[in-house]
Amino acid sequence: MYIVETVSWVAKAGVESQQMIDAVTLMLPDLKKVPGFKYQSLSQKEIMQETSNTDSASQWLQLYYWDTVENAHNSNEIMAPTASLAHLISLIEPASIAIDIFIPQQQSSRLMLD
Fold this sequence. Notes:
Elements: E1 3-10, H1 17-31, E2 37-48, E3 56-66, H2 69-79, H3 83-89, E4 98-102
Antiparallel strand pairs: 1-3, 1-4, 2-3
């Protein structure tokens, strides 16, 4: 069994994709110490700004896989004091952050997570 946590956000203006990737990579050693952590992935989508047709921003989606709902919820408290999370948050528009936890109900095949 596994739990899926989604965390989405919009990068601050001027933040490059590689900066976001590096910030998430920097978090991995801390994240791997959190009880119940199984896997994470990071995805990006370019979005058009409402103020201009030429400006774009980056919307990000991070998927976390946990062993239990409780560990997914507790992870936020455990990661909150880390410098790696503080660095990532410094690149994000704070009001854009959305966090949800889902319990899988169906899958195409067995998911193999180490």
